Amino acid sequence: MAKHPGPAGVAIIAALSGDPTARLVAGEDGNFRLAASGGHGGFLSAATVLSYRTAGLLGEIAPGMFAATPAAAAWLKRRADGERPFRAQHGTLAEKTNGGTRVVVDLDESPIATLARRVGKGGEPWLKPHAVEAAERLRRDFEIGRLQPQVTANWSASVSNGRRAGDGLADLTDMALAARLRFDRAMRAVGPELSGALADVCCFLKGLETLERERLWPARSAKLVLRIALEALARHYGLTATATGRPGSGKLRHWGADDYRPEIA
């Protein structure tokens, strides 16, 4: 029964899971009623409560009193997306528009996306939008430039030339080469002290705790380093909290005549 509950059962499990103080309490009529901080509402039969308990969704914390188990939250996430139940369980899915097409993305896939949803003590976002955009731009160039290490053979390579690596410059498109050049310029602009951490988080999607452990950094220091690195990256891209553009971007550009000579600063 727990696999195919009705709307009332799902609503009560969701209420129990969302409120740690909520309880299912046995009534005189043999049914179990929901007691939550927001008031009382809804009931389940004793047989339904037993089936939920057997499925691991409810745990008895006192005689005649049940609360949601940690497994209930995962169960609710799986139910939220019937086509991708386990992806929904282990991530935060949302629909976005990409080139006019609506696609489902995992908001927890990237550490940057997770940090972008956090807020500071004053309610402001922990990462400013221009820093998030800089991180996404760096990752796009990383992906387009095919800079992710390839651990398997490329079977689309030509058999006649005997090549299987398929990651040489000759195999790259002009778009991929341009992306690699942009990525290299960005890394140089940020500097060697920050570029490694930036690539680990933005491109290789390493968590901040992993970064601290691998680099033997003090706890909670990676957040500060990442924020400084993203600000440096944003300056390279000409991104700021206000849309000002790069320095000198307002100069007029024009075609020169035959005898035109550009100014040399």
Task: Please give a structural write-up.
By secondary structure, the chain is of the alpha+beta class. Among the domains are: 7-77, no CATH class; 132-237, no CATH class. The chain is 42% helix and 14% strand. It contains ten helices and seven strands. The chain has helices at residues 7-18, 46-54, 70-80, 85-89, 111-116, 129-144, 174-190, 192-202, 208-215, 221-237; strands at residues 23-26, 32-36, 39-44, 58-62, 65-68, 93-98, 101-106. A hairpin with a 2-residue loop joins strand 2 and strand 3. Helix 7 packs across helix 10 (221-237).
Give the strand order, joined by hyphens, for the main sheet: 3-2-1-5-4
Question: For the report, how would you describe the main beta sheet?
Answer: 5 strands, antiparallel
What is the helix/strand order?
Answer: HEEEHEEHHEEHHHHHH
Helix content: 40-55%
Between the first and last Cα atoms, what is the distance in angstroms?
A: 77 Å
Instruction: Please provide the count of β strands.
Output: 7
Which runs of at least 5 residues are low in confidence (pLDDT < 50)?
84-94, 155-166
Q: What radius of gyration results from the CA coordinates?
A: 27 Å
